[in-house]
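Thread: quick sanity check before group meeting

JM: Hey all, I'm pulling together slides for Thursday and realized we never actually wrote out the predicted structure for the chain we discussed last week. Dropping the sequence here so it's in one place. If anyone has concerns about the input, flag it before I start.
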Amino acid sequence: MPRPHGFAYEQHAGGTVRITHHGRPATMLNGPRAEQFMAEVESSDPQLVMARWTGNYKRGNERTARGHLRNRR
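JM (edit): ok, ran it. Output follows.
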């Protein structure tokens, strides 16, 4: 499974964190959730952490699902 990429985050005044994926807004975190995210992103792989927090990560079945009869056109 490929590693996640294309994520970025911006920390704004007031403790708000905005996470984007390929330039598009993915999620906004406020308060304690933003603090927890910042602690996690500084201690681990930032791309993996952002993928997990946004729920935007591959599950490994995309290639097999592409060939299913229901998905062919």
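AS: nice. Residues 22 and 36 are 23 Å apart (CA to CA). The helical segments are 31-43, 46-54, 62-66.
JM: adding both to the slides.
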